């Protein structure tokens, strides 16, 4: 006859529906983030100012066994680059309405009128909030603009979870904030580099919250 405590333990484990166990080799605490890019070019805004722009496509995969709420908030306005804080980039989200639902490896990743959106957009923040089911892969499209005469080189970006280490070829040693403790939620950071790793910024930009 089985001991009663063994039976109770078995029931508790099999009935629990909040496991965040992931089998993906690149998963971090149940989520996989992959940044593609950049794509982009040069445009002239309504004020006659020439801008370089870069577009990055981010795959966000919920590889856990529970739903999660994904929230993104990017400043839209100027972000100072380190170590020279007199140089800036603008970072924003493209709205879902003009972005393809599937990954398309074409000009500007298939975003409808991407350059027209960049020219017309305000400098205010951009945001996203969506619930991701287990196994769901959500696509984000992030834009970065900067004056071509102030900054040179190819732009790079990587969205990662606080506690992860981004690509060291993009960001110098010591550029990633040191995490103290561990929250049950996952905080998101967007690392942006121009002429990497010479000019960079770390932008806190969102959170993943597991739901019951």
Q: In words, what does this structure look like?
A:
With 212 residues, the chain is mostly beta strands. It has one domain. The protein is built from 2 helices and 10 strands. The strands form 2 sheets. A 5-stranded antiparallel β-sheet has the order 1-2-7-5-4. A 5-stranded antiparallel β-sheet has the order 6-3-10-9-8, with no helix packed on it. The protein is globular and about 50 Å long.
Helical content class:
under 10%
How much strand content do the residues show?
35-45%
Q: Give the strand order, joined by hyphens, for the main sheet.
A: 1-2-7-5-4
Largest sheet: 5 strands, antiparallel
Q: Supply the number of structural domains.
A: 1
- Number of DSSP helical runs: 2
Total count of strands: 10
* Nearest-integer average pLDDT: 87
SS-based structural class?
mainly beta
Shape: globular
Low-confidence stretches: 1-19
Give the termini distance in whole angstroms. 35 Å
Brief characterization of the structure:
With 212 residues, the chain is mainly beta.
